[in-house]
Amino acid sequence: MPARVTTLKELAASLGLSITTVSRALAGHQQIALKTRERVAQAARQAGYVANTAARTLVSGRSGFVGLVLPIRGPHLVDSFLGEFVTGLGEGLVAHGADLILATAAQDQAELAVLRHVVESGRADGVVITRIAEVDERLAYLRNRGFPFVAHGRLLDSDFAYNWLDTDGAHAFGEAFDMLYDLGHRHFGLVTISEPMTFRHLRQDGLAAAIARRGDPSVRLDVATASRFDRGARIQAVNRLLQGPSRPTAIIALFDELALTVMEEAARTGLTVPRDLSVIGFDNVLASAYAPPGLTTFDASIRQCAREIADMLLTIIAEKPAEPLTRLIRPALVSRASHGPAPRTRKMTPA
Amino acid sequence: MPARVTTLKELAASLGLSITTVSRALAGHQQIALKTRERVAQAARQAGYVANTAARTLVSGRSGFVGLVLPIRGPHLVDSFLGEFVTGLGEGLVAHGADLILATAAQDQAELAVLRHVVESGRADGVVITRIAEVDERLAYLRNRGFPFVAHGRLLDSDFAYNWLDTDGAHAFGEAFDMLYDLGHRHFGLVTISEPMTFRHLRQDGLAAAIARRGDPSVRLDVATASRFDRGARIQAVNRLLQGPSRPTAIIALFDELALTVMEEAARTGLTVPRDLSVIGFDNVLASAYAPPGLTTFDASIRQCAREIADMLLTIIAEKPAEPLTRLIRPALVSRASHGPAPRTRKMTPA
DNA sequence: AGCAAAATTTAAAACGTTTGCAATTTCGAA
DNA sequence: TTCGAAATTGCAAACGTTTTAAATTTTGCT
């Protein structure tokens, strides 16, 4: 078994070369004789030498890490978003030899403070931020700081440009409306959340725009709002829609979790999906395939998006492009069995 | 807006103190006058000073990171394991100010090589390894290297002790058998995988032990095996169990994904769960709650386990306990609607 | 053989922090 | 006052690497 070589100094000594030469040889500099480069590479491989990250980072100013702040959420992690996102980032990063660092923000701790810490400590060369809020201090901070970042999601309007990748929720919601309209639906319901996330507005606006495009005054839209994290309130909101004197024939939910609640409540109150009610979600979470009769939804392909975000960020770090990079991904309709033609006769909700 | 203070040197200069004093003051050393400590803390806070991680790591030998190697899996990430695991680790780490680094192993790249790189580069003070294989070179490497680690899962037998946390799959499978036996089932099916993971043996052995404990010769167990990653083969294996001349009245699946396949295939071939067939899974993935009629399974509470793993690892790093830490978590039965009394009359499979 | 240019190697500084040891200041008692 | 001890602060080395600038060796020509 080979002697444990931990440092460049030891490796250099064992080769009878200077630290400088070994360092350069390993980095593949042309100025080092080919024969020497090979000899060094061979010795390093055999000794299992790996350069110390801290030392390299300290002198080069590059850590080779990309940061992601992980907000601790409630006890029920109901989707695979994080897993897919992280996997996608990993895939994107590994191609360039970069790694991911995940800094956790404790529940009471502002996410901004953790982000700041990651940036100021030099742990990462760039960061990814997700779940963009209407007024997002992270964006302002990173922008002021001039620190490389890519946002997953967008601001509604901003007086500055930045790098982002977003799924085109507006387009998806327009598509959902058009499809349902063509199936004869005229009375729509929208289940949405009260949290100030921008994706909510983007999707709602896309729906409103699609409605406006039709110019059909008989189209009606009822909106029910609840907190994202309060399951009880969500169920209540859904039932406000379902139990009114006149009930929508089609409900579009801001995301699958809400759509699944709609389907559960519909079933509980004796409605059959899609005969009595069409439901469309967004995200294509795993459960949407299993929840009967199968939820029609949009696939945002989180993993693929994350991979592209990683690519974008590495490009930004390496090349500092003058123009910001932006990318709008059109989500794909996943047509399952939760939507269908509008019912002919308006049935009242069963008592 | 305060001048940007990036280094200790600048902060010290602005305070008229030496670097040493400021460093010690920030570290809270008693030998520095309280008044000075307060003055320094105030200035640091106001300037937003954060110590450079690379420099600190280099000199102290501690990075404050815990590593996890992320194997890239197939295109379909069907569960929320990674997300929950990472969230749990984050929760456990944040309490001690540690962060997580995720190193991705490209598909063709051996996970061991990536692990080695993480360890040898000094990026992490300890690592977590998951999905323990029957013969696991990672364990041997870390052990030889004397590097702090915690395994999520166990070897079947080993000639050395190490730190691990595992869910007691053997107990769960015994419990599942006992419950089904008491419901009158005598003919069992087991759907398992061909991959050499230890958890497979632990669970199967638990089942075998429970069967042996009953000492009832009328108990019969059919086993179907398929690759974890080949959906077609999995479906075939399930159907071998379902379509035989005499079919089990209860099927236990190694994990939920297989159990869901059983339920799908049962429904497809006209069997009603749980009237004709009881099905029990393991993991309690999200979809198991939605897949009709609701899968009875065991909840391994990945998130909680991960949090404990983080705690264990930080303890190991800080205190280097002489005895290895081990922890066996008993998974909780999640009783849904996929199991019931054994059918009275043996129905043949419908043609 | 001798010399300039090219090729190859090296010494030393720098990155920003922690820390052993020494220097300085403060303070109470003689 | 003055002295010694205690309290407080500072110098300088060290961590392991990259990189600038300079030194050394080799090569090609005459």
Give the H and E element order of chain A: HHHHEHEHEHEEHEHEHEHEHEHEE
Our count of domains of chain A comes out at 3
**Which quaternary structure do these chains form?**
homodimer
Unreliable parts of chain A? 346-351
**Largest interface: pair, residues per side:** A-B, 55 and 55 residues
Full CATH superfamily name of the largest domain in chain A: Response regulator
The CATH architecture of the largest domain in chain A can be given as 3-Layer(aba) Sandwich
Residue-averaged pLDDT of chain A, rounded?
93
The helical percent of chain A reads 40-55%
* Helix-strand category of chain A: alpha/beta
Arrangement of strands in the largest sheet of chain A: 2-1-3-4-5-11
| CATH class assignment of the largest domain in chain A | Alpha Beta
Rg of chain A (C-alpha, Å): 26 Å
Largest sheet of chain A: 6 strands, parallel
First-last Cα distance of chain A: 79 Å
CATH topology of the largest domain in chain A: Rossmann fold
Helix count, DSSP H or I runs of 4 or more residues of chain A? 13
Number of strands of chain A: 12
Shape of chain A: elongated
β-strand percent of chain A reads 15-25%
